[in-house]
């Protein structure tokens, strides 16, 4: 087996400790840390890291790449940021489990504005089948968590009804099987149908099953619970689920929404829960821009019954009137649309609903309805969803880690897809000094590995897997912007995944050494 020596760099091992100068030897996909003189060490490949930082590869606990990665397996937007492992199945939206191909394809259709389509017809139904498609076919390691929407489709169906005891038992059985096959826990996206139809009690019951298997609860909370008087209510529901089930709680894309309280309210909820003995963590992305499917702005009842029902409602004059009365137009001026497939709609890429309304002489809500119909639901929208002034408080909080919530399609995705991790290094740590470089790396390596329960990754320790990055701190930069979001990050010179170079000397090698990381096999 060929060996690689990364010599004479500043090793920041991911644990938050001060860095030290030394070398890292890679053999058989395992690392050895060398603190002494390395001149006598022979290696097939030697990388001089003088003046550079050697660190573990970054772990992204929120990525919408479960389907698109098969069409773009080199995964350049992420690996050029130093990402070597990521988790899919978040927001309650996982690629498994499904009883038949028809249900899977219907769900991909309903969700296409958030996760798009795979490059060919899906050929999996079970967790084990999906994970087997990853091995040595993509550039990064992939972990999977199980969403409550597929579980609902499995046992309850697509309708806005309360689950029976037998149906909940069936969902628990399906979740248990998925975790036995390698999934890491349970996720919810309580603004997305049909998972949004789940009651708190249903989620507590499913969480009880997940925690028996060593899993955790990864949640996009229920925004409909928020009121002007209690904007923390969605997160209080998540804490209640954790408290009553005993499951560790992870609040994803956690931040202060503009105009809603203070950042102390949000972070205080986390601190108070941890003070009571709960295991509560969160992740944040580093840009003020949100990003999701355009269908999220439609009333939840409009999706009752699945994608066909939504198409019917979008086509109905009476349903359109009812939806228009219930929709919140506040995001129309600032949110922009992307992922148009039809050539005649390409001119709308990057424009807001209001801008398109002015061009077409339509009411804004008619723009939304007509475009969703024409594009068969697959439009994504991006906009301001975070108070940028308080974002550093979340990024530097000790219970917080970094995740991208990356959406890898459309001409104008959120720039965080291309710059989320390097922005932490270049701006939050190096330039603005909100946190040290060691702490920034911890939040992107060992901490998410700890949250996941992942062994042998996330740290540079003897015997750990060779997921390694080398970067020039002064040259690290995230050039992605709202106007030009699809710009690759700069400054990451080498990226190694499972002992093989994915990026070498700032160029993608074309190697696809990624592996599915499986609970049980790869967990503590």
What's the structural blueprint in terms of helices and strands?
Elements: E1 3-11, E2 20-27, E3 30-34, E4 45-48, E5 53-56, E6 58-60, E7 63-64, H1 76-79, E8 83-88, H2 101-110, H3 112-115, H4 127-132, E9 141-144, E10 146-147, H5 148-155, H6 165-180, E11 185-189, H7 200-212, E12 216-220, H8 233-245, E13 249-251, H9 263-275, E14 280-284, E15 292-293, H10 307-315, H11 317-326, E16 336-338, H12 353-360, H13 364-374, E17 380-382, H14 391-396, E18 400-402, E19 406-407, H15 416-431, H16 437-442, H17 446-452, E20 468-471, E21 492-497, E22 500-504, E23 507-508
Parallel strand pairs: 1-4, 1-5, 6-8, 7-19, 8-9, 10-11, 11-12, 12-13, 13-14, 14-18
Antiparallel strand pairs: 1-2, 2-3, 5-20, 15-17, 16-17, 20-21, 21-22, 22-23
Helix pairs in contact: 5-6, 6-7, 7-8, 12-13
């Amino acid at each position: 087996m060929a060996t690689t020596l990364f010599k004479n760099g500043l090793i920041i091992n991911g644990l938050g400790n001060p860095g030290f100068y030394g070398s890292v030897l890679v053999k058989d996909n395992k690392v050895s840390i060398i603190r002494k003189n390395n001149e006598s060490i022979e290696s097939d490949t030697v990388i001089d890291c003088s003046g550079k930082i050697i660190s573990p590869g970054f772990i992204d606990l929120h990525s919408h790449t479960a389907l698109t990665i098969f069409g773009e397996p080199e995964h350049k937007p992420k690996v050029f940021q130093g990402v070597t492992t990521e988790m899919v199945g978040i927001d309650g939206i996982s690629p498994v489990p499904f009883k038949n191909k028809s249900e899977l394809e219907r769900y991909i259709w309903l969700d296409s504005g958030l996760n798009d389509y795979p490059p060919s017809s899906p050929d999996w139904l079970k967790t084990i089948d999906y994970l087997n498609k990853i091995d040595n076919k993509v550039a990064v390691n992939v972990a999977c968590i199980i969403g409550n929407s597929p579980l609902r489709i499995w046992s309850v169906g697509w309708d806005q009804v309360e689950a029976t005891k037998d149906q909940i038992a069936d969902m628990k059985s399906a979740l248990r099987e998925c975790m036995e096959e390698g999934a890491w826990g349970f996720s919810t996206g309580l603004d997305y149908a049909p998972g949004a139809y789940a009651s708190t009690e249903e989620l507590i019951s499913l969480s009880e099953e997940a925690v028996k298997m060593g899993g955790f609860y990864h949640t996009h909370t229920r925004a409909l619970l928020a009121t002007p008087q209690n904007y923390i209510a969605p997160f209080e529901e998540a804490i209640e689920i954790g408290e009553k089930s005993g499951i560790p709680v992870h609040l994803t894309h956690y931040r202060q929404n503009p105009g809603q309280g203070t950042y102390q309210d949000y972070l205080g909820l986390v601190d108070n829960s941890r003070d009571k003995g709960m295991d509560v963590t969160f992740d944040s992305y580093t840009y003020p821009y949100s990003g999701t499917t355009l269908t999220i702005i439609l009333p939840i009842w409009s999706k009752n019954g699945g994608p066909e029902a939504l198409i019917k409602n979008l086509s109905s004059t009476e349903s359109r009137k009812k939806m228009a009365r219930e929709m919140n137009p506040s995001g129309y001026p600032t949110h922009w649309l992307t992922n148009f497939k039809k050539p005649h709609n390409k001119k709308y890429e990057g424009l807001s609903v209001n801008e398109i309304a002015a061009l077409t002489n339509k009411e804004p809500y008619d723009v939304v309805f007509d475009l969703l119909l024409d594009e068969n639901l697959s439009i994504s929208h991006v906009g301001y969803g975070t108070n940028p002034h308080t974002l550093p408080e979340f990024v530097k909080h000790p219970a917080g880690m970094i995740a991208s919530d990356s959406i890898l399609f459309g001409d104008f995705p959120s720039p965080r897809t291309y710059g989320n991790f390097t922005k932490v290094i270049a701006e939050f740590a190096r330039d603005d000094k909100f946190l040290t470089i060691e702490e920034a790396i911890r939040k992107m390596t060992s901490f998410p590995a700890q949250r996941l329960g992942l062994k042998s990754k996330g740290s540079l320790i003897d015997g750990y897997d060779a997921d390694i990055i080398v970067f020039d701190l002064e040259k690290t930069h995230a050039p992605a912007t709202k106007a030009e979001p699809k710009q690759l990050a700069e400054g990451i010179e080498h990226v190694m995944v499972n002992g093989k170079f994915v990026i070498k000397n700032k160029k993608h090698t074309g190697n696809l050494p990624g592996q599915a990381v499986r609970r049980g096999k790869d967990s503590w």
